[in-house]
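Structure (tokenized):
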């Protein structure tokens, strides 16, 4: 009896096959879009952590060699004939000393494809012998944006000559 029921059973109808394939395609598209969004998020996250590690390594290297760096003894509020402050001229984003991108810091001529720039000024703290104020400016078109829309971040720290 059971064998006769199997022989007389009909297969999957065309409508059932279309509905099942539509459900499978919808699920595949949803999963692939989630995967692409996750990849995009991971890329942004790795770029941010890369930026932080590059800046941190640069700061540590600079602090270690502070005695060999150029110290600027000019007053940071001093202005030139055009009315620009000394620090604004030295930290102009277009004229910063180094370029950087993910995993790399170099001179501008060594990495023309690098998108970010960074530079610093070291000034003595008045009244404190051997202490210096270091101002580090970092720019990058995609990894750094601030609420003022300036496209750079400044880091200031006080370091000691060893």
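Design, position by position:
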């Amino acid at each position: 009896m059971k064998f006769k029921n199997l022989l007389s059973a009909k297969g999957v109808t065309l409508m059932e096959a279309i509905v099942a394939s539509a459900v499978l395609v919808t699920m595949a598209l949803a999963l692939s879009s989630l995967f692409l969004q996750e990849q995009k998020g991971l890329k942004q996250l790795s770029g941010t952590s890369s930026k932080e590690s590059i800046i941190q390594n640069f700061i540590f290297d600079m602090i270690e060699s502070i005695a060999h760096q150029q110290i600027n003894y000019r007053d940071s509020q001093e202005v030139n004939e055009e009315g620009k402050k000394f620090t604004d001229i030295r930290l102009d984003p277009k004229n910063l000393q180094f370029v950087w991108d993910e995993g790399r810091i170099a001179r501008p001529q060594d990495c023309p494809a690098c998108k970010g720039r960074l530079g610093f000024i070291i000034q003595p703290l008045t009244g404190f012998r051997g202490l210096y104020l270091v101002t580090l400016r970092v720019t990058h078109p995609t990894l750094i944006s601030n609420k003022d829309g300036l496209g750079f971040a400044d880091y200031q720290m006080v370091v000691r000559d060893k």
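Reviewer-requested clarification: Strands lie at 98-101, 104-106, 116-124, 131-139, 152-160. Residues 133 and 158 are 5 Å apart (CA to CA).
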